[in-house]
Structure formats: C-alpha cells, structure tokens
Specification:
The structure is a single chain. This protein is an alpha+beta fold. Helix content is 49%, strand content 16%. It has two domains: 4-127; 139-236, no CATH class. It is built from eleven helices and eight strands. The chain has a four-stranded antiparallel β-sheet, covered by helices on one side. Strands 1-2 form a two-stranded antiparallel sheet. Strand 7 and strand 8 form a beta hairpin. Helix 9 packs antiparallel against helix 10. The two termini are 23 Å apart. The relative contact order is 0.10.
C-alpha cells in the first residue's frame, strides 16, 4: 500500500497525484493527464517518487488509454536516474512485466507511436541507454571518440547518408567513410533483438538504421574499424542505481 504522504511529486506536493489518478481512472480527463505529466516527470528528465508510486496504476490503465501508456513508458525510461525510489521500483516488478507484454502487443499492431512504444519496451528490458538514445534514423547523429586514436568521430545515419566523418564547424562533415551495416545473422544481444523486432513489425527504416548502428565504422583519422554501438554505449551508458 502506497503511503502517499511521503510520495512527493515534482512540485513538492503529496496530495495532487492521488487525486489526479482517481480522476483519470473515473474518466479520460485531458487536463488531469496533462497535470500528471508535469507532476510526475520534471524538466531535464528528473523523476519524482510519486511517478514511481503511480506506475502500477498507470499500467492498469495503459491498455485502454494512450496517455497512461505514454506516461508509464516515460517513467520507466528514467528509472536508471537518481530518484531514491529503488524499493518502489522493485515493488512494481510485476506491473512492469505486464506493461512489457502490453507494449509488445501494441508494437505488433504497427501503431503511429511505434518508436515511442519501442523505446518504452527497451526500458522495460532495462536497456535504458538505447531507450533514451534511439532516434527514428531520418537525421540521426552519434558523436564518439575513436577507440584507437581518440579522434572525435561523427556517425550519421539518416536521409543524408550513413557514414563516419570528422565534423568541421565551417565545412560540415568531412572525410566521409561509408558505414558497414551488420548482417542480420551476425547481430548479438540487444542489437539482434531490436533488429528482429522491427523486422517482425515491418519497420524497415528502423531495422535498416539498427543494422548500421550495430555495424562497423572506419575512423577517418587513423583508418581503424570499430563497432559503433559498442563505443557509443560505453561512453554514454547511464550508471544504474
């Protein structure tokens, strides 16, 4: 049983969130959903204790309310941050597992919010880094250091090309080298799951982007070859609580 008297929201109140949850449980109140959003999740991706406490109730609503599904997903995507609610998160394990199954079913319906749902499912699978970093591969850039010579390399995966380059703020991306996408049969771990899921769901652009993201890049400075996802993840993975 949640002790709401200790569950501060992002406005340092303890009474509004339970009231708002009761409102959205009774009726699909747009204003209540909007207020819940800024009370549960603060700017700069900070998460309140009230957000974690509200998670099981949001999951119960998620099958019938897109607002509940999106808000629950945003909360789980931030679960690796500093929130002081590890016990609340552990107590929500069954609800999170239920939410994961719901998200997977929703993905297979090929919804308009596919990417948001996919990112939420990554967070459910505790892939918090990719849940927050993954884009739609229309104009995505990843910046990392070459593991061999430490040169700052820009990786582009989008409509304007799929390449590694050195970014010059006057000339743009120079000395471009084509990326080498990973063959599907060579993908491992989360990269394989991401690719197989997007292929299953007919998301060809995402699947192609993931194959490049988990493929190889050549450093324009030293010509060494490295795995993009490994280097980017190593430099940007959040520290779990």
């Amino acid at each position: 049983m949640v002790n709401w008297a200790r569950m501060y929201d992002c406005r340092f109140d303890t009474d509004r969130v339970p009231e708002l949850l009761e409102r959205v449980e009774r009726e699909n109140d747009d204003k209540a959903w909007e207020e819940l959003g800024y009370r549960l999740i603060l700017e700069h991706d900070l998460l309140s204790l009230a957000g974690l406490a509200a998670l099981p109730r949001l999951v119960r609503l998620a099958s019938g309310h897109a607002d509940a599904r999106h808000l629950a997903g945003e909360i789980i995507e931030r679960a690796a941050g500093h929130h002081g609610g590890d016990e609340l998160l552990a107590d929500s394990a069954d609800a999170i597992a239920e939410f994961g199954a719901l998200l997977d079913r929703h993905l297979q319906s090929r919804p308009a919010d596919y990417l948001a749902t996919f990112r939420a499912l990554l967070a459910v699978r505790e892939q918090y880094h990719w849940a927050n970093a993954l884009g739609d591969f229309t104009d995505d850039f990843y910046h990392l250091a070459c593991p061999h010579c430490a040169a700052e390399v820009t990786i582009a995966i989008g409509d304007h090309g799929r390449y590694s380059a050195i970014r010059d703020w006057n000339l743009g991306d120079v000395d471009r080298r084509d990326l080498r996408p990973a063959p599907a049969e060579e993908l491992l771990g989360v990269g394989r799951w991401m690719h197989e899921t997007t292929v299953r769901d007919g998301e060809a652009l995402l699947a192609k982007g993931i194959a490049h993201l988990f493929g190889k890049a050549e450093c324009p400075t030293c010509a060494s070859v490295f795995t993009i996802a490994d280097e980017y993840e190593a430099a940007n993975r959040p520290v779990l609580q």
